[in-house]
Amino acid sequence: MYYPQDPANVEQSHPKLSSMAIIGHTTPNSCKIWVRLYRPGHWWLVLTKQPLTGNLDTLGGLHVKAFVKAQAGAGAKCYSARIDDSSDNTHTWSVSGLAAGTRYYYAVIADREEAEQIPRRTEIGHRPPRFFDTPAKMPERFSFGYFSCHDPFSNGSVGEGAWPLLYESLVDKQAQFLIGGGDQVYVDTNKMQDMYSIWEWLAQYKNAIIADNRLDDGSLDSARLIDFFTRTYRSYYRLYWNFASVKRCFARFPVYMIWDDHEIMDGWGSFSRAERRKLLNKLFQDDDEETNGQLVELMFAAAKRAYLEYQHCHNPDSFVDVADPGQNPLCEWDYAFSRGDSAFYVLDMRGHHDYEREGSALLGERQMQRFTAWLQGPARAAKSVFVVSPVPIVHWNGLVTQLDIGPAKDDIRDEWEHETNHVERNRLLQLMLAFSQDSAIPVTVLSGDVHCASVYQIEHDAYPAARLFNVTSSAISRKPAPAKAELLIRKTGPISGYEGGYATRLYALAGQFNYLMVTTDNGALSPEVLIELCWPGGDDGEINRKRIQLTGA
């Protein structure tokens, strides 16, 4: 059977990303800058404090350093890299020695030796000039944005959802950064839009793929398959990120990312191994369950590799086996960072998610230990704390979270409120409540996933002084849950399976694209956290806002 051996042919109806820049983890003195370029080559990253001028197409035939020095003098920074298709023409520069509170312009320029193959040498930063700002060393008050669930294809016609409004809000607030809280791409849900689900594609062509990748001893060529599957996953990133407002946000504001299930498989980690194997079964095909299981694990390895290349590589450093990120089980996709007196921890709910592991299915024991150590160490030096949990801790009512049947059972098992996750959830809540009680530091959990929005305060009888909140914002461009879904969002009341726990609903919204703006002020006597849930309003680009003061006056 023929199958598309070029991953670009898996989906042919929509244009894909050629070149793009992402400003990654940024500190007062450093920055990660990620690029994806339309072709391999010897490329230069140039940082200056004023935009480059002159003929940026040809640079007058000069070497990059000579051209830049003539304009910017010794203050310019130039970094080169040989970029090739082994990483899908992506690369991350880690830049140090920057000045705090400073605007830097950046450009990505081809080397002079590449001029015949790349006649327009400045690929990024020409029109318009590109720039980012390093933060002050200790900002007392700052704002940042939060989004999740980017799927502009899900509405039946391509649209950017709330992305244009998000960019407007980021500029208006002079935001310090942006957090992508999961599902930055969807590899598996849009077969109605002339677009293959990557798992439907695999199920359809698996016999041909297996036959083409059998070794002489009968085993599968794992390395070759991971490479092939990785190239397929990459094509979805280039499909989903090829939108003007997405590129504009990522190129201007530092963005921190964490994956959720749709970067891998819908409900990844919430199926048993036997259930995952059956997902590849097709009528009138030979279905070897053991081989199906091998293919599933190789796809997961490929998803991890693509996630590292496109998302995690520009996050703060964590332990990741760069040589083999797909098959090393010790890779750490969770990470921490700080901004002034605010501390952030981003939890990974997919890299080690295993429904069949009792008591620690979502995070796993090692990650829970890392989070505990962070709360006991770096977080205690902060004045406000933020934790990213891609799936909300509290959101749906009990009727929803116990419906562990039918096609949505994986989504239900994803939930912290599903009974199989209560032990791990209660441990997580206990850690955050005890931390806030003991330190007098407010903790705000940021979540996505559910395609609607909610705000809760979480309390417990044993921790009366704790200030813990869960704020959920979703989706930025995925088709929202219908407005009537608000009836399924939990009301104020006890937390099921957590004796003494109580969740007070402060707000709920369904039926709208939405995103979140957060402002924290640590200069006051009591740290202040203000959230603004934002969604489109009207035909003229208006922004509706619901402001809620979580802490402070």
CATH class categorisation of the largest domain: Alpha Beta
The largest sheet has its strands arranged as: 12-13-14-15-17-16-19-18
Structural class: alpha+beta
Mean pLDDT: 91
The CATH superfamily title of the largest domain: Alkaline phosphatase D (PhoD)
Major beta sheet summary: 8 strands, mixed
> How many domains is the backbone divided into?
2
Rg (C-alpha, Å):
24 Å
Straight-line N-to-C gap: 67 Å
Question: What this model shows, in words?
Answer:
- With 553 residues, the chain is of the alpha+beta class.
- It has two domains: 29-133, Immunoglobulin-like; 141-551, Purple Acid Phosphatase, chain A, domain 2.
- The protein is 24% helix and 25% strand.
- It contains eleven helices and 22 strands.
- It has helices at 64-72, 163-172, 198-212, 222-240, 244-252, 273-278, 289-310, 365-376, 398-401, 409-414, 422-439, and strands at residues 20-27, 30-36, 41-48, 77-83, 90-95, 103-110, 122-124, 130-133, 141-147, 177-180, 255-257, 335-339, 342-346, 384-388, 443-447, 453-460, 468-472, 493-494, 501-509, 515-521, 528-537, 542-551.
- The strands form four sheets. It has an eight-stranded mixed sheet with strand order 12-13-14-15-17-16-19-18. The protein has a six-stranded mixed sheet with strand order 11-10-9-20-21-22, covered by helices on one side.
- Strand 1 (20-27) and strand 2 (30-36) form a beta hairpin.
- Helix 2 runs parallel beside helix 5 (244-252), helix 4 crosses helix 7 and helix 8 (365-376) runs parallel beside helix 11.
- The chain is globular, with a radius of gyration of 24 Å.
- The model has no long low-confidence stretch (mean pLDDT 91).
